[in-house]
Structures are given as structure tokens and as C-alpha cells.
Design a protein that fits this description.
Elements (H helix, E strand, L loop, with lengths): L1 H24 L2 E5 L4 E10 L2 E6 L5 E4 L3 E15 L4 E8 L5 E6 L2 E6 L3 E6 L8 E12 L4 E13 L3 E13 L4 E15 L4 E12 L4 E17 L3 E16 L4 E18 L5 E12 L6 E14 L2 E12 L10 E12 L1
Antiparallel strand pairs: 1-2, 1-5, 2-3, 2-9, 3-4, 5-6, 5-9, 6-7, 7-8, 10-11, 10-21, 11-12, 12-13, 13-14, 14-15, 15-16, 16-17, 17-18, 18-19, 19-20, 20-21
Length: 345
């Protein structure tokens, strides 16, 4: 009986060890350049950063330049490369460092880890497709006895061929007698991709700028765009089309429906050597169709330094120009500098 009990105990131990080894084998794995590794779940790669959910720990973000290999065989991934390739498959180590094999139905593509522009699970859940950030800042001067409150944020959703983004920002003046809504921007954008780089676009927007005599502007637009530059340190796109505007001036004069042609371009520069930072440059130009000769420009430049994990210092510059502002007595050019803390999620 004792011999039988020992055999059963040994069998249970061996079976448990086999199950644990098997479970570990199907986990995703990151191999670092310092010869360490972490096991868990690969979530995504974007703008040179890997988001990974390790076992028994919270999510981590790792720069691609610190990754030697990625192995992830639990699901199919969608990979975009900086050479404009779109590949689907599981990820396996290669014999050469910084090279991974993307395998699907017997076909293998060898790619460099550093050449990955975007990566996410093909069957990821809805919640895993969301990302975003939120920033807040405040400044006060005793001599003028007022403060300036500014905030900005974004919420993004990405799937196989769709991107949806909600962006918002505002600047307010706070005094002893109340608060003034100086500048507000809200936009909801939808992109439908028909190639890895090219997409159709639709958006809704709301704007307010008291400096330019604009109490509110509602905007609806359609167009096409292209990701014309994807490299290891730069991500850029452009789009153009037509918009319809409905404006209300600070003098409560309603413009009716105004049509404009537009062109927008955005650059994202990211660097992970010390100091770590990323820069976003965004420019839009609008050409009046209903109002002959009207030209408007909206521009933003944001510089972010990461001070601790997912928390960044933000320095932003914005400009707005309108050669035919809604209120004729107002200026046609506005600019400003905003400073704050930004949390990324």
C-alpha cells in the first residue's frame, strides 16, 4: 500500500509539473537585450513601444530597441511594418538577434523587431482596443489676480480597418467673479482603411475662440488620407477634403452654412534615448468656398517628457489664424502656450 501511495504521489507531482511547463510554454514572452525575459500576454506595439501584461504584475511598456526577440504563439497578430507591409500570424524567435518569424498557414516572414510600426492581436477584445491620455494644467499670477486653467485629452479605438478618436481641449480664465471659457476644441474622427496606408475619413468638430470673435463653430467633414511616413522614429499622416461650418460670432451673428476645402498633416516624433520624449506637430489649413478668399489655419505643437511611468510633463504651443474672423472687430491671429501634467492609459 505504501509503495502504491508513493507511486501515485510521484505521478501527481510529475503531471502537475508537466501541466505547469505546458502552461508556461503557451505564454507570450519578451526577450530583452540584457539576457532577461518576461512571460505573460503581448497586448500591442505602437510608436516604438511594446505594451505587455506580465504574469503576477501590472501592464508594462518597453521600448522596442530593448527587445531582442518576441515570441507569441497564442493568437494571430496583425502587424504593420515601416516598409508598408501588412502581415498576419503568430510570432516566433529566429536564430538571429532582433529578428522574429511571423508564421501563418506554413508561410514565414522574417522581420526586424525594430521595423514593427503597429501590432495588435487580430482577435483582441473591444476593451483592449482603447487607449488614450488626459492632461491638466493651471497657472496663477497675483499681480493680475486671475488664473488660467487648461486641459486636454484623447480617447482612441483601433480595430482591423477602423480608427475612431475623440480629442478635446480647453483653456479657461478664472477670476474672483467667475470663469471665462476662452478656447475650446472637441473633435470626433473616423478613419476607414482600404490599404495599410490609405483611408477615407469623416469627422465632427466643435470650436470656440473668443480672441477671434468665435462663440461657437460646428463642423462636419469628409475626405481621404494617407500615412505617408512610418519609420522607427517618425509617424506621419495627411488628409484632405471638404467641410461644412456653422458659425456664431461673439456678437450673436449666425453665418448659416459655410463650405471649405481643407488639408491637414500630423507628425509624431518619438525618441527613447535619454532624455525620453515625443513631439506631436499638427497643422490644418482651410480654404473658403462660400466665402471667397477666406483662409484659416489651426496649429498645435506638443512636447512631452516622461518623468515617471505613464506620467509626462507637457509643454504645448497653439496658433489660430482667420483672415476673415466671425466678428470684424476682433483680431485675426491667436496663439498661446500651455503647460501641465499628462497621464497616458
Amino acid at each position: 500500500m505504501a509503495v502504491m501511495f508513493r507511486r501515485i504521489t510521484l505521478l501527481v507531482i510529475l503531471l502537475s509539473a508537466w501541466v505547469m511547463i505546458k502552461a508556461q510554454a503557451v505564454k507570450d514572452t519578451l526577450y530583452f537585450t540584457n539576457s532577461t525575459m518576461v512571460i505573460g500576454k503581448l497586448k500591442k506595439v505602437k510608436l516604438g513601444v511594446v505594451t505587455f501584461d506580465p504574469d503576477f504584475a501590472n501592464d508594462i511598456t518597453v521600448q522596442l530597441r530593448k527587445i531582442k526577440w518576441i515570441e507569441a504563439r497564442t493568437k494571430i497578430f496583425r502587424i504593420e511594418t515601416i516598409q508598408d507591409k501588412l502581415i498576419f500570424g503568430v510570432l516566433a524567435k529566429d536564430v538571429d538577434p532582433f529578428i522574429i518569424n511571423v508564421i501563418q498557414e506554413g508561410d514565414t516572414n522574417r522581420i526586424s523587431v525594430l521595423d514593427i510600426s503597429n501590432l495588435y492581436p487580430f482577435d483582441q477584445t473591444v476593451l483592449e482596443r482603447f487607449s488614450g491620455n488626459f492632461g491638466l494644467g493651471y497657472s496663477y499670477t497675483r499681480s493680475s489676480n486671475f488664473g488660467r486653467l487648461n486641459f486636454d485629452g484623447a480617447l482612441r479605438y483601433s480595430s482591423l480597418k477602423q480608427e475612431i478618436s475623440l480629442n478635446f481641449s480647453g483653456i479657461y480664465t478664472v477670476t474672483d467673479t467667475g470663469m471665462t471659457r476662452d478656447r475650446e476644441d472637441v473633435s470626433l474622427k473616423y478613419n476607414q482603411y482600404f490599404t495599410p496606408r490609405s483611408f477615407s475619413t469623416a469627422f465632427l468638430a466643435y470650436q470656440r475662440n473668443l480672441e477671434l470673435g468665435l462663440k461657437r463653430r460646428y463642423q462636419e467633414g469628409l475626405g481621404i488620407g494617407n500615412k505617408f511616413l512610418t519609420s522607427r522614429y517618425i509617424y506621419a499622416w495627411a488628409r484632405g477634403g471638404m467641410v461644412l461650418n456653422q458659425e456664431l460670432s461673439t456678437e450673436d451673428e449666425n453665418s448659416g452654412v459655410l463650405s471649405e476645402a481643407f488639408m491637414q498633416v500630423q507628425f509624431n516624433f518619438f525618441r527613447f534615448e535619454k532624455p525620453e520624449f515625443n513631439v506631436d506637430l499638427y497643422e490644418s489649413v482651410f480654404f473658403g468656398i462660400a466665402q471667397n478668399g477666406r483662409i484659416r489655419n489651426d496649429g498645435e505643437l506638443d512636447i512631452n517628457w516622461e518623468i515617471v511611468h505613464d506620467l509626462r510633463l507637457n509643454l504645448g504651443f497653439y496658433t489660430n489664424f482667420d483672415n476673415q474672423p466671425p466678428s470684424s472687430g476682433n483680431r485675426n491671429f491667436d496663439y498661446g502656450i500651455v503647460f501641465g501634467l499628462n497621464y497616458k492609459f
